Amino acid sequence: MSSDPDAPSDATSTPDASRSGETLLETRGLVKEFGGLVATDDVSIDVKRGERVSIIGPNGAGKSTLINLITRRLEPTRGDILFKGESIVQMEPHQVVQRGISKSFQTASIFPDLTVMENAQIAALAAEHGEFGFNFLTHRDKLTDVHELAEDTLEAVGLLDRAHNDAEDLPYGDKRRLEIGIALAAEPDLLLMDEPTAGMSPEETQATVDLIEEVKEEMGLTFVLVEHDMEIVFSISDRIVVLNRGGVIAEGTPEEIRGDPAVQEAYLGGVEL
Predict the structure, then answer these.
(1) Mind listing the pLDDT tens digit for each residue in 151-173?
(2) Tens digits of per-residue pLDDT, 256-273?
(3) Between residues 195 and 8, which one has the greater pLDDT?
(4) CA distances for 97 relative to 73, 158, 198, 267, angstroms
(5) φ, ψ dihedrals at 144, nearest 5°
(6) Locations of Low complexity compositional bias (predicted)?
(7) Is the pTM of this model over 0.70?
(8) Is residue 206 part of a domain?
(9) DSSP letter assigned to residue 69
(10) 116 within some domain
(11) 231: in domain
(12) What are phi and psi of 124, to 5 degrees?
């Protein structure tokens, strides 16, 4: 960036202002049709760098479809998806990961027959080389970097002390934490989480919420969360986007969403959340 003292003093040209206001992810008029069913209907949202954004809505509102469109597991019927200012609709899923988007799934997606460390190392290798490809002539120092990244990831999710355990032997909550760790090992700019606390006990849920908070504070990670637990959504979100019947019906802070009549009607027939 130019240090010319005569340069315009536009606030958006400063590093801090640029970072705080930068749009990391944007969808423009996103439509996904399955035959005669419209799963997402003209969805336009944006996510700023460093934000914690939750996407909520009744069952069938289009939440998971939207996430799968962003990660390129589904093709949009119409519309565009921009990440870091570049359209990604022509990219393959692994290219999106390389670009900086990771996803944790609705159920734990791990390699159960491998150890916890091996799971993290595979994710780190994928982040380093792409498509899980591997060059066996790679310098040993590169392998050391991958191992260190895997260790750091497991430490971040509280599983380093179980690194040599078989992944299938972990309690369910720890499997979900490992799955989040696998997503983090790609060192993403944006983490998409699809119901990360589904099936967890209250204790496991709280531990996962604490983990999300720690990741946000320590890594400055931007994330988009799909979650049914409104207590979690209201406690950790900077902003909430509400979908119903495929379209956005409300968007705002937790306080604004809690008192929005359209949201109350969509969820509980007008009963306050």
Answers:
(1) 988 998 889 999 999 999 999 88
(2) 999 899 898 887 554 455
(3) 195
(4) 12, 23, 24, 33
(5) -65, -40
(6) 1-18
(7) yes
(8) yes
(9) H
(10) no
(11) yes
(12) -65, -40
